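Posting for a labmate who doesn't have an account.
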Amino acid sequence: MRMAKVLKRKDGIWFIDGYDPDMKIMFRVDKVVKYKKTPLQEILIVEIKGFGKCLIIDGITQSSEADEFIYHECLIHPALFQRSNNESISALVLGYGEGATVRELVKYKNLKRIVAIDIDEKAVMLLRKHFPSMHLNTYEDPRVKIYFISAIDYLRQSQEKFDFIFSDISDPGCFNLASDKNKSEITFYKLIKKALNRNGIFVSHAYFLNELSFCEHRKMLFTLNKVFRKSFSSRVFVPFFGNYWSFILSTDDDSINPCNFPENKFQKIIENMELTGKLKYLNRDSYNALFGLPNILKEKLRQRNP
């Protein structure tokens, strides 16, 4: 468990993000709202000027009230857009957290079943209290079921199948968190594939992705390509992270290509799914930018060695 690093200076209290060992981002803290250690995580909730109330887990920035919608919309909607014509679909969320991922899912009227998994019930209850603007009480939606168990143990024990699986575990490398049985990363993804319906879609957030920082994303991409026939990288700049954060969409459905979206289809989906006015970040232009990686990055992601 990494610890939150706080620095007291003459000009105030500063939080130092601990995600990147070679680069640090500092935030001046206006107010410490809550600090709590659960058996699994260290949780720090602070108010930061410009970002509002912010969540920090094990010393790493997770989300802020001001810009979390960027991350959560880009995690969820590109995958759902691929199945907008299906009358009845289901989704599994690995990592319920502050509830913003489920908030985006319940916007879809054709999503009839949403199962959310989180290992840390104490953390979820704490975040439910402090981040109502993120979950919007969507845990009360009758379509939503929440279970407190590790992701890998749920996948190993459950016989349920889903059309979509989203991995929103706080650290994408912690796929084995508190599992009662060791599993390799590729085995974890094979369990995910087994829990998908035929031609289902898996999406995970996947580290920093920029022209200088791409190795972790590439490693994850190569691993997923061993399990699924197709995987697609995307990224978006998240101000609270101070960097581009990435996602990987994986599937065995050869008809899916989120990078090649017909021009008239985007607006039709927005209208058909009654999403007009419900998206703060995604429109046709920002969707294109999400999958529009520069040439040098595409080349780097194809290489097996730096």
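Reply:
Got it, the structure tokens are right above this. The CA atoms of residues 154 and 285 lie 37 Å apart.
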